[in-house]
Amino acid sequence: MSIKLDQIDKKILDILQSNAKITNSQLAQEIGLSPAPTLERVRKLEQAGIIKSYHAEVDVDQLGLGTAVFVLVSLSGHKKHQILSFVEKINAIPEVVECYHTTGQGDFLLKILSKDISSYQQLILNKLVDIEEIGNMQSMVILSSFKDSKVMPITSVV
Predict the structure, then answer these.
(1) Which long-range contacts (CB under 8 A, 24 or more apart) does 94-101 make?
(2) Buried b / exposed e along 97-122 (16+ C-beta atoms within 10 A)
(3) Helices (H) and strands (E) in the chain, counts
(4) What is the Cα–Cα distance from 135 to 56, expressed in whole angstroms?
């Protein structure tokens, strides 16, 4: 189900991305509508799949997951069953928090969170090396992040 977004829908999305805990009456006040049509618009955005879910953003450093690593993975083969098997195995590893199928030098880009470098090494030795579809891996430890936006640029959508 695809819907055409107007300026009010875009404003709703901008606000909800910044504060998903906002009440419907507060949201209505911010967008200049009464609560009933505001709630109807939010429900339409949810039903259309534009709003997929609501989440709490957690501080990974405070949780003891302060080491983040990007891993560029090249598969040993590119048959459909190999790709699907790799993805299934990666999805079973909780430390792999993001997985992208890419073009370029590698086939997949993983983002892995761990306690420290030693924990990351154990993850490689105990889990990743056992995935037979992996032909090559290149790790890039993230030293710092200068932008990590969870807010999508809704207002730039035509």
Answers:
(1) 95/123
(2) eebeeeeeebbbbbebbbeeeeebee
(3) 5, 4
(4) 36
CA 11 vs CA 37, 48, 51, 121: distances in Å: 14, 17, 13, 44
**Domains along the chain with CATH numbers:** 7-47 (1.10.10.10), 67-141 (3.30.70.920)
Contacts of residue 136, Cβ cutoff 8 Å, sequence gap at least 6: 73, 74, 106
Centroid of chain to Cα 93 = 15
Buried b (16+ CB within 10 A) or exposed e, 14-49: bbbeeeeeeeeeebbeebebeeeebeebbeebeeee
Kindly report whether the global pTM for this prediction surpasses the value 0.90.
no
pLDDT per residue as tens digits for the range 116-150: 999 999 999 999 999 999 999 999 999 999 998 88
- Bridge partners, residue 99, by sequence: 110
- How many whole angstroms separate alpha carbon 53 and alpha carbon 115? 27
